[in-house]
């Protein structure tokens, strides 16, 4: 079986898909903007010296609402897909997903702690808060990833069943803690907490965007440098060692990248599930499991898929808005069941 | 070359391997025999640096294994494990080309080597196939091609360790695999191979190490090791030792 698609046409197609998703995400909404205006206003906002006559409304909508939201969706989708690839490489199993094994809920617990105790402390400086939130989400994600990894491993072998079960237990534990906070929270905190549980790109601001963008760029640059080592790791840990790779260091890097990526994504947009599961799977079906293609292609496809899911979330019940986590779960959960069924046959 | 000096391995409080003195010689195939649980795979893991030595040491070119830089060691020492747990749909030649990861010989040369290694493992016809659709024996040959590609074309100073490379193969491919191993050794590489079939060991190995409870029971040429007394002592099996009518090596028949 040759992969259905070669790398270059795949990247061209995914690039075009991403451009389409970006355009739709910028142009559509309660006020639809024509293509030319969208493009012109977006380029002006990015600092290109174009004439701005008659673009005031478009610039306002784009600058204040749609551009930060689109960039947020782009970064969240890319970093979640990359984290999914890293997890699946680490566990050497295509069913590992940051949401399913509890990394997202660990990160959400970290974020909830930051929200609740941040509110107790009487509010933090406005510019500092998103970074604290990201740091706490990162710490929560790191803790859970490490725990699940410890539980799922015995004598150098990864037990997928144990891993998923440990993920369920830790998700329940984080859920209980978040539930406790919800019960004790005042109204404002409650709304913020609910938002984090469901996941949404709503209310995107540049302040929330920066920490995520930094992390996404770092992860997107770092992981492809480990593509060959990830390929070798799929053979087995000792096989990778015999091929000359420093496996222990690689595993630490993968845990760190995943926690960082998922933590930043959860801090910025709440828990959005299944992107890390569905996207790498689709890319593998098209182009095979080679990480040199899989990593960049998943980042592109993840960004596109999340932007399109957000578009659905925004438009399907307009002017009301669904949390995007509902949309991704509606697509992702049946997909996961399908994979389970196929794995058994 | 690879040398073990007074090597011992412990697992918890138990000593699972002890008193191992051996040197792999260029151009030679060394067979390791022994009943289940005799410590054959432990020996291989200790020789490849996977398991730490409780006593003694393993030297590659007079340098302890741990002092070697990863890729540098990988260009000299390749290991074929007993089973592989690869669960992703790589194509056959992608699996084999992973043997080239420690090298920087370029894509064109690597593709040539992958083809030659596949041919050597009698798996050239599997090129282009999905690894997950192969049978157990076909997968085993693909992994043999992978470790051959890692050391290709083979030469003095290189070491190949094989853990039961014939366990899933049909009779023809048991022979072709060991013939390929022999041919590889004749290029100058030192080969250690764990085997269960005494007659294959008699035919293809230059020296044999017979392990019992983690300790060497007999070590020497096939004629010295494959005798009725050591085989009875180690395997508890009554055998007749005859001569192969055409090749003259020992032929073991259970009584």
Outline the structure in words.
- The complex is a heterodimer of chains A (345) and B (255).
- With 345 residues, chain A is mainly alpha-helical.
- Chain A is built from 14 helices and 2 strands, in the order H-H-H-H-H-E-E-H-H-H-H-H-H-H-H-H.
- Chain A has helices spanning 7-27, 35-45, 56-91, 103-120, 129-152, 160-184, 187-198, 206-222, 227-235, 237-242, 247-269, 275-287, 291-315, 324-344, and strands at residues 153-154, 157-158.
- Chain A has a two-stranded antiparallel sheet with strand order 1-2.
- Chain A is globular and about 65 Å long.
- With 255 residues, chain B is of the alpha/beta class.
- Chain B has one domain (2-254): Rossmann fold (3-Layer(aba) Sandwich), CATH 3.40.50.300.
- Chain B contains 9 helices and 12 strands.
- In chain B, a hairpin with a 2-residue loop joins strand 4 (55-60) and strand 5.
- Chain B is globular and about 55 Å long.
- The mean pLDDT of chain B is 94.
- At the A-B interface, helix 9 and helix 10 of A face helix 2 and strand 6 of B.
Give the low-confidence spans of chain A.
none
What fraction of residues of chain A sit in β-strands? under 5%
CATH superfamily of chain B: P-loop containing nucleotide triphosphate hydrolases
CATH H-tier superfamily of chain A: ABC transporter involved in vitamin B12 uptake, BtuC
Instruction: Fill in the CATH topology of chain B.
Output: Rossmann fold
Give the terminus-to-terminus CA distance of chain B.
Answer: 40 Å
The rough form of chain A would be described as globular
CATH class wording of chain A: Mainly Alpha
Report the biggest beta sheet of chain B as strand number plus sense, adding barrel if it closes. 6 strands, mixed
What count of domains describes the coordinates of chain A? Answer: 1
Uncertain spans of chain B: none
* CATH fold-type name of chain A: ABC transporter involved in vitamin B12 uptake, BtuC
Report Rg of chain B.
18 Å
Helices and strands of chain B: which structural class?
A: alpha/beta
Shape of chain B: globular
Name the CATH class of chain B.
Answer: Alpha Beta
Give the biggest sheet of chain A. Answer: 2 strands, antiparallel
Please state the CA-atom Rg of chain A, rounded to the nearest Å.
Answer: 20 Å
Subcellular location (chain A): Cell membrane
Family (chain A): Belongs to the binding-protein-dependent transport system permease family. FecCD subfamily.
Main location (chain A): membrane
GO molecular function (chain A): transmembrane transporter activity
